[in-house]
Design goal:
By secondary structure, the protein is of the alpha/beta class. It contains 16 helices and 9 strands. The mean pLDDT is about 85.
Length: about 325
């Protein structure tokens, strides 16, 4: 399933009260899609890293009451009221005894003296055994308590998220240019650093923190691997040929647009889309008018992803009417 479909599945099964397990390779955004689903449903999210737990952490510590009977004090990270999603991340990386402690919590909605409130649902996630991550085979009894979905990463889904999150336009443009490098994970290569949606988000943060090329290159290599970093460094050199977004938007017809340099055109589109707003959109449509048709559509589409309200502006209506043959 793609990210949008996974989010819909989460929302559906949470509403139905059915536990869900999301499978996928490392770094593709499983945690993020659960967070988005909780936000869309207006529910709280309690994120529990099962890998870090001991069995007693879920059941709680024993105590003796006034009658000499033993009961259990549940941990304070388990919800007591309200409505939300209890997210058991990296569940199959947890030791077997921790997984066993989740049996009751997943299906019977209780463990020890604790009961999961009615407004809460369980969602879990983990890497596949074929990814050679730290995993323990999930017992059949626990696996049978979930509905299982496989998460498939796609560039367009990631771009939607990246634009909303304010990701560095250079990163988005590069992955438009080299989509294969969004997720290039091969468990057989045994690499310490490799490209994933998560590691590219780290690269975006690094770009926000420094523009020093001497430190940037090794940091990017240490985040997405040497091969992807070398290509990205070359792409950044191309990006430096662009004027600032402010100067482009101030004089949309004053710069000769490239027509035969796809890397530069991708960089231009994402740079402008990252600055899309009702105030800048007229200038953006003017620049789009001078681009090859596929890049004009890309620029307008990503601007709308950045700010959906632009669809109601006169500038978009005018552009859509003038380019109706493209939109059909």
């Amino acid at each position: 399933m793609r990210a949008r479909a996974v989010q819909t599945a989460i929302e559906t099964l949470v509403t139905a009260g059915q536990p869900l397990y999301i499978w996928g390779p490392p770094g593709i955004g499983k945690s993020d899609v659960v967070r988005e689903a909780a936000r869309a449903l207006g529910r709280e999210l309690v994120d529990i890293r099962a890998l870090l737990l001991d069995p007693v952490d879920l059941r709680g510590l024993p105590r003796i009451d006034g009658e000499g009977r033993t009961s259990w004090s549940p941990p304070d990270f388990l919800p007591e009221s309200g409505r939300g999603i209890l997210f058991l991340d990296e569940l199959n990386a947890a030791p077997p005894l921790v997984q066993a402690a989740c049996y009751q919590l997943v299906l019977d909605r209780r463990i020890g003296d604790y009961r999961l409130p009615e407004g809460w649902s369980v969602v879990a996630a983990g890497n596949r055994e074929t990814d050679r991550s730290v995993t323990h085979r999930m017992p059949s009894a626990l696996a049978n308590r979930f509905t299982h979905v496989d998460f498939e990463v796609r560039l367009e889904d990631w771009v939607d998220w990246a634009l909303k999150e304010g990701m560095a336009p250079e990163v988005i443009a590069f992955l438009r240019f080299r989509p294969r490098l969004l997720h290039d994970f091969d468990p057989g290569r045994n690499e310490k650093a490799f490209p994933t949606p998560r590691s590219w988000a780290f690269v975006s943060r690094i770009l926000d923190a420094t523009d020093d090329g001497e430190i940037l290159k090794p940091l990017v290599a240490g985040t997405v691997g040497a091969g992807a970093a070398a290509e990205f460094s070359g792409f950044l050199e191309v990006c430096r040929e662009l004027p600032s977004a402010e100067s482009l938007l101030a004089d949309p017809r004053g710069w000769r647009l490239p027509q035969d340099n796809p890397a530069l055109l991708y960089a231009l589109c994402e740079l402008l889309a990252s600055h899309a707003s009702p105030e800048s959109f007229v200038a953006i449509t003017e620049i789009a008018a001078g681009l090859p048709v596929e890049f004009a559509v890309l620029l307008i589409r990503d601007s709308l992803r950045k700010d959906a309200s632009l669809v109601d502006t006169g500038a978009f209506v005018d552009w859509a009417e003038a380019h109706a043959e493209i939109l059909v």
